[in-house]
Amino acid sequence: MTDSLGQLAGVPHIAGVGVDQIAFPGREGYLPLIAALRDGGFEMCADLCVVDYLGHPGRPLPDGVTPERFEVVVNLLSLSAKRRVRVRVQVPESDPSVPSLFDLYPGTEAMEREAFDLMGVIFINHPDLTRILMPEEWEGHPLRKDYGNARVPVQFKEAPGPR
Amino acid sequence: MTTIGHHNDEDDTMRTIERPSWSPKDTSEGAQELLTRSETVASELGRESGAVLRLPDGQVLDATQIDIDRPDDETMIINMGPQHPSTHGVLRLMLELDGEVVLRTKPIIGYLHTGMEKTAEDLTYVQGSTNVTRMDYLSPLHNELVFSLATESLLGLEMPSRATWIRMLMCELNRVSSHLMWMATNGMDLGSTSMMIYGFREREMILSFFEKTTGLRLNTNYIRPGGVAADLPDGWEDDVAVICDTVLERSFEYDDLLTGQPIFRERTEGVGGLTAEEALALSVTGPLLRSTGVPWDLRRSMPYLAYDELDFDVIVGTYGDNFDRYAIRLAEIRESIKMIRQIVEKMPSGDYRIQDPKVTPPPRGRIDASMEALIHHFKIFTEGFKVPEGEVYLPIESPRGELGCYLVSDGSSKPFRMHIRGPSFVNLQVLPLLLRGGLLSDAVAVISSVDPVMGEVDR
Amino acid sequence: MGLEDLPHNFLTGQIEDLVKWARRSSMWPATFGLACCAIEMMAAGAADYDLARFGMEVFRNSPRQADVMIVAGRVSQKMAPVLRQVYDQMMEPKWVISMGVCASSGGMFNNYAVVQGVDQIVPVDVYAPGCPPSPETLIHAILTLHESIRTGEITKRRQQGMPLEMNHEHASPWVPDVPTAVRLGTPR
After folding, report:
1. Contact B240, B205 (CB under 8 A)
2. Which residue of C has its CA nearest to B113?
3. What is the pLDDT of residues A67-100, one digit of tens each?
4. For chain C: N or C, fewer Cβ within 10 A?
5. Mind listing the pLDDT tens digit for each residue in B216-259?
6. Which residue of chain A is at minimal alpha-carbon distance from C116?
7. Alpha helices of B190-275 — where are they, by DSSP H?
8. Is B394's CB within 8 Å of A18's CB?
9. In the CATH scheme, what architecture does the domain A6-124 have?
10. Which CATH number does the domain B116-358+386-422 belong to among 1.10.10.10, 1.10.4160.10, 1.10.645.10, 1.20.1260.10?
11. What are the phi and psi torsion angles at B398 (to 5°)?
12. How close C52 comes to chain B (CA, Å)?
C-alpha cells in the first residue's frame, strides 16, 4: 500500500482532512496516476465532481501547480486498506477537457455525465457524454458561478435579500 | 401544431388529427434516450453488456444466452415512467425488449432535479441543513448529519458526547424507518399489499417519536452544525423502548409473511444477481455491495460519531440477488434495534450542542434579558457564522450506501461549493447490468431491490 | 360537468345531489407522487390515516381511470410536460390538489430547476401547504374538495374562471369528525 502512495512522490501533494494525501497531477499525468493508484489497491472511485473556482479569493496549492478556473476532484477508496486519497486536477476555462476515467472505473460514467451537464467540463473518451439531469435542449451549465440561479422575484418582499 | 396520424380501418385511409395547441411539446429527451442499436456507438453497447467491466474470461456475459443479434425490427423499445407505480419515484427507464426479455436498458433521470447544490451556495451553514435534508427524503437525518459533520470538520470543532450519541440514536432510528419503508414498497411491488400496510404502521411509531423530539415527521432539520437543535424530551427512554420491542417482534412477523413464502422466493431468488467485481467497478455501496459478499460498512470499517463503541454485526450476503438484499435489510433492522438499545443504556449526560459562541445561539430565555444575547442570536441567524477556508470530503453510511459531502469553503458564511455524493445516483448504474436477460416483471423487482430515492439521485 | 345545462326542478335537483354524492365519495387519485410529499401521501393511504374511509385508497395508475390528481412534490423543468400530458389524459370531471409548498408555489426552491407553482401548468382546485404536509393536512384538503363538490361551489367557480376557495358565506366551515391518531405519550 505504501508503494501506491509512493506513486504520489512524483506528483505535488499535500495532506488533507480525512484523507491521507491530496494529489495535484497535471492533465497529462492524471490518467497514469489514477491507473497506478487503482493497481496499488484503490478498488473504488467514491466520488468525482467539478468545482468552479471563479470568484474564490485564493486557495492553497502546492508549489508548481497553477490555479485554473475548474478543478476535477476525484476521491478514491481502498477497501482493503481502509484508506482514501483525493486527486485534484486543474482544468482551464479555455479548454475545459480532461480524460475520462470510464475505462478504469466504469462507475464514474454517471458522475462524469453530471459534471458535464452542470459544469460544462468535457470528458474525453466517455462513451455517452450527454446531459443527465437537465432537459436535453437546455442551454448553459447551471452550476457555474456566472450562471445566475434564476430566482423569480417574490411579490411580497420589497428588497431582494438573501431569501 | 403537429398532426397525429390515425388509420381508419373502414376505408383504409390515413386521417390526420391536429394536435391541439394546449397539448404539450414532446416529452422526448433526444440524446438522453435509448436509441436503436443501429444508431448507438459501439462503446456504449459494450458498456451496456458489461464488456468494459474487465471481468475475467470465465465471467464475461455469454452472448449465446441472450440473442443479442436480433435485427432491430424484431425488438421493441418501450418507455417505462416517469409516472409509473413501480419505479419508486420519477425514474424513467427505456427498455429494449425481445418479447418479455429485457435486452438493453437506459435509465433517464433528472425529473426531480431541484438545483439543491446551487441553492446551497445561497444559504448559510445554519440554513444549509434545511436544504440538504430534502435530498434523500427517506432518511433525512443522515443528510443533515453528513452536512453537519463536514461543516464541523472544516470548523475544527469537537462535539460534546451527548450530542454525538443523540445523533447516533436518531440516525439509527432513521435507518430502521427507511428500511421499513423499503420493505413496505418492496412488498407491494412484489404483490404483497399487506406488507405495505405493516411497514407503514411500524414507521408511524418512529415518526411519532421524531415529531415529539424534532417537531416534524419528515425533513426534520434537527442535526445542525454545532450539535442538535433540541434535547431529547422527557420519557424518551420509554418511547424508544416501546419502539424497539414492537419493531423487533413484528420483524419476525415479516419473516413469516415473506421469507418462507414460495412466490416471494421464486420472484427474488436468483434475480438480479451481482458479483463483487462488478459492484466494485461500478462504485456500488451499501446493502447492494454487502449482498455480493464484500463486508464493507463504514460504521465498522471507518467509524464516525461513536460507532466504534457499539457492538453490532455487519450483515453480508452470498449471491448478490434480490433475496439477499431483502434479507440484509431485514437483518439490518434488527441490528439497528440492538444498537439503539445499547445507545439508550450508554447515553451520556451533558450538552446537546457545543457551547462555542461562534456557532451556537444563546438560549431563548436569555434573549429577553440581555442585549448581547439578542445581537448574538441575530447575527447567527441572519449572517451566519464564517467557516475557515478549506475543503473536505466526509462519507457516512446511509441506508442506501456511502453518502458523502464534499464541501469547499472560501472563508465566508456560505458554502462555496457543496456536492453531495448520493449513493442512489451511483447505484443506479447497475440497472443495465442487472436487468439484462431478465423478464419485464423482474425489472420491477430489481429496481425496488436497488432502493433508489430519486431526491438523492437528481438533487 | 354536464350538470349546469339541465333545467332546474325538484327531480333534477335530487339527481344532481346523487351525482355529486357519487363523485365525491369514490374519487380515485392518480399516482403523481414526486418527492417527500409522496411519502406523506402514501402514509395517508396507509393504516394510521386511512384514506379508504373516504373511498380513495385505490391510487389508479392509469390517468384514464382517475378523478383527482394529487401533485405531491416539486415539479422540475423536465417533469413539467409530463405533468401536463398526464393531466390531459384524465377524463372530465377531474380535479387537482396541489400538495405541499413546492407544488403550490415552488416552495423553498426558488431557482432555475423548479417550476414555481404547479398552477402554471394545470388548473388547481385545492392547495395544501406544508413541507411536507402532514397526512392530516392532506385529508383536510381532500375533504375541502369533497365539501366544495357537495355544495356545488366547484362548478360555480369553474364557470367564473376563478380559483377555488372555501367561501364561508355559502357553507359553514365543516370540520371533519374523524378520530386523530394515537401518539406515543403525547397528551391530548
Report:
1. no
2. C76
3. 888 999 999 998 888 888 888 989 888 888 899 8
4. C
5. 898 888 998 988 888 898 889 999 999 999 999 999 988 888 88
6. A152
7. 193-214, 236-254, 262-268
8. yes
9. 2-Layer Sandwich (3.30)
10. 1.10.645.10
11. -90, 170
12. 12
